[in-house]
Amino acid sequence: MSVSKLFKREVFASLRFPLDRIHEDNAVILDILKNSKRVLLIKENLYHYIRREGSITTSKISEKRIRSLFLNYKESVQFLKNENLNQFLDLNQIQYFYAFWGLFRDCNDRKTRKIIRSYVIKIKKEYKPKLKLNKTKFSIFIRKMFILLNIKP
């Protein structure tokens, strides 16, 4: 979410958000972090979020939105592998499972739910987590999600 971050202009000297993609900020955040000399976190909540009609969060879940999320997932996996950050692949997968679950939960359309389910299956097939499925809260969540999506854990 780029609205919750401040970046120096230099960060975008050679970096651009991908065109024709929803959630395009997720596609560049790993490159931004890689190229940043320092990152600071603050506790204060300085952003007031307004839900407006027609925004990504209030509009109907589209196939473009689902495909964009999957492209971001694929690119993040490639980035982590290229940067030899394999220890973060599990957390990355969990993050995207959670994002897809949010779409599935908020979707009432049967056809769109089927599309979301197909992308979750692709993620599951491509990367086998090294985390033990019975030892983390996230793993319990993923197991429940698979059951609700009718996917064998």
Strand % is under 5%
Mind summarizing the main beta sheet?
Answer: none
The amount of helix comes to 40-55%
**What coarse outline follows from CA principal-axis ratios?**
globular
Discrete helix count: 5
Radius of gyration: 17 Å
End-to-end distance: 30 Å
| Topology, number of strands | 0
**Structural class of the secondary structure composition?**
mainly alpha
Low-confidence stretches: none
**Whole-number mean pLDDT:** 78
Secondary-structure element sequence?
HHHHH
Topology:
Blueprint (H helix, E strand, L loop, with lengths): L23 H12 L27 H20 L6 H18 L3 H17 L10 H12 L5
Description of the structure:
- The chain has 5 helices and no strands.
- The protein starts with 23 loop residues before the first helix and ends in a 5-residue tail after the last helix.
- The chain is mostly helical.
Looking at this protein, list some descriptive labels.
153 residues; mainly alpha
In short:
It contains 5 helices and no strands. Helix content is 52%, strand content 0%.
